[in-house]
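Cross-posting from the modeling subforum.

Setting up a comparison between two proteins and wanted a second pair of eyes on the formatting. Protein 1 (sequence, then structure tokens):
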Amino acid sequence: MHPDFQQLMSQATRLTRSGNLAAAAAAIQAALMGASPTAASAAPRYDEADVIDVEAREVPASTVSAAASSDSGSHSTPAPSQARDDDVGQNPHTPATPRAPGESSATPGDYFTAGSFRNSAGQRAYKLYVPPGANGQARPLVVMLHGCTQDADDFAAGTAMNEAARKQGFYVLYPVQPRETNPQKCWNWFKHNHQQAGKGEPSILADMTRHVIAEYGIDPRRVYVAGLSAGGAMAAILANTYPQLYAAAGVHSGLAAGAATDLPSALSAMKGIGVRPGAASGTPVPTIVFHGDRDATVHPSNGDAVVAASAGANAQVQSQRVAGANRGRDSTKRVYMDASGKVVAEYWVVHGAGHAWAGGSPKGSYTDASGPDATQEMLRFFFEHPLATKQ
């Protein structure tokens, strides 16, 4: 973390208390992009509706200006096709791109295609990985929500989720947050109007998921959602608001549903101040959490809050140390069970790790290759938790 991070965050706190929310947002942006305190005054000034939330890695101060006017200044991968008004619910069977940049060579029959979806709450582009040999078979679906400054191609490459899907035979949906709806392409987890079923981004993402389920004959009992950072926070919101749609959730370096509703509470949650368990739905969704204990962007206490919302206060907990492979990072794995002994949550505390996808590929951004394989562990957890059959 940049040495001036704490100074900038303190500056943002003072500005928030004084009511200067635009300047506070600029200070937060500068802190998360690795800028110096003097750069805060030059940073783009967004109002509270456009506050920058969680960015997943530091950007050198020399790239701050470029990052404010371009996608991120650090990605070599092209962004997904932008959505158009006439793209609503388009049939994405024709592949636009065979795979994410950086992936291994083609497997006959699989493809990575672009599409767009709109409902009454708004429109978002997406990319969809279709596994080989999926014709007419009810396969699982994993919805992947990228972090700030990322896009679908980058997230697919960094998590290697498409390669896992190719081997195990499931679909992967990557909704895309455009800069027009958040300056750093963060999902708007911290806004009260994006935290409820039937409203805002949760509505768009849930209906997009339903659209893909219907279009491709997905197994409705095996639909899962996962995300990193701001994407992890939105994954927690989707699990909370749509427990009959998503059978399980994966939250990596994210925050619990309801952790914030405005700029001051977002700032506090990120710093670990006043963090409380998220608001669980009437039907808590099984959740697996990964969080680095050295995360200086989203305080690790947020991982505890995510788990508590899923597991509840009376869960039995078993803890074990997991040694890192090939001299990688060790982890503490906590397994939460209900009174019947059923696993309802897992929490992987990755020792010495910061704000990055554990075990990810260097082909994508915001990854830590020395960590445990979060992608494979999430998939294991997901496929152990199909949606319960309705009585």
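Protein 2 (same layout):
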Amino acid sequence: MATRKTSSDDLLGPVTLAVGQEDLLLDRAVREVVAAARAADADTDVRDLTPDQVQPGSLAELTSPSLFAERKVLIVRNAQDLSAESVKDVKGYLDSPVEDITLVLLHAGGAKGKGLLDAARKAGAREVACPKTTKPAERLTFVRQEFRTLGRSATPEACQTLVDAIGSDLRELASAVTQLTADVDGTIDEAVVGRYYTGRAEASSFNVADRAVEGRAAEALEALRWSLSTGVAPVLITSALAQGVRAIGKLSSARGGRPADLARELGMPPWKIDRVRQQMRGWTPDGVAMALRAVAEADAGVKGGGDDPEYALEKAVVAVARAARFRRGA
């Protein structure tokens, strides 16, 4: 979970430093600052920059006074990768920040670029910790906090079932919590989570994903139609597809070992390691990349980017099944 490491809670202070490698928490730290800035000034100018976009002298240009005196938020991602000349510019800015401009530095937190990290801290930057969650207990705590943040109550068993079903991806855990709180009234218990994530096999979003990553397109489409007809939310199906493909990608690039060791390394339950090992036969890195692109397109379609969510899901299922048997040059 993102945690504050300084006493300052001023979201519109001169500098916010988000430190860590958990993408969800880094993005939340950014969104929090941008939301506060736009609440203060709806016309806030937001610039989201990668290291290669921060060239020597560009920071001075971006922070120069505007004719319209607008508020600005400047976001620099992967600040540890800035060039030495750009780091010098940022350090100089930290010594004399501009009023109504908030600089958000996203830094991985390692030894690389430590000079900039130290300089930002010395300058009194508001700091948000965004560490990777590497332990099951940390993910369980994250899920509990997500429910609390949304003002909802979930039993310990429900939280554990959710973590066991989804694994280590915080985005997917957060999405599942949001979906459950939107759909379910009252306390969320293990039975509720079971209906969504481990319900009847033929109607389960995970059954759709399992058949698709195994290359069994016809069975995956049949499972998809069952799922949709029994009310499974389309967003849960795209989430399950994404998890299935990512699990194959993670395990195929991991070192060999016992399921228990791999489970700790990859953040999956041991039983899932065994299942993914069976499913990953025939997959190639190119196939994984193709499948992830297809799922991303379906996710956009399901969430409002297309006119027919069911068609978007069908396309994704077929694409994933084909990718499971993809061969370069075939």
